[in-house]
Amino acid sequence: MSDNDGGRRKNLRMPDDDEVFATVTNMLGANRVKVRCADGTERTARIPGKMQKRIWIREDDVVLVEPWDWQDEKADVKWRYDKQEADQLREEGHIQ
Known about the structure:
It is a single chain. The chain is mainly beta. It has one helix and five strands, in the order E-E-E-E-E-H. The protein has one helix at about 85-90; strands spanning about 20-30, 30-35, 40-45, 60-65, 75-80. The protein has a five-stranded mixed barrel. The longest helix has 9 residues, at about 85-90.
């Protein structure tokens, strides 16, 4: 297996009805990050326990978040895209 996939499109996880694309803007510590969502809202997102120490999230990473129903300024991180996947999302016009 090589890193070069020959320019073929990779099937990516797309957001469900209640999820939105977001970019990590700041690491807050205590498993929390500040994200700027595709809907223009800045939210504090929580990294769930099943992702901690398995999937490392850094500033400028593209993630999927699910905003809370009861507090719109908070969300849960559901998925992190690697650099190649984020570039593909930008090329296809899903994110800016």
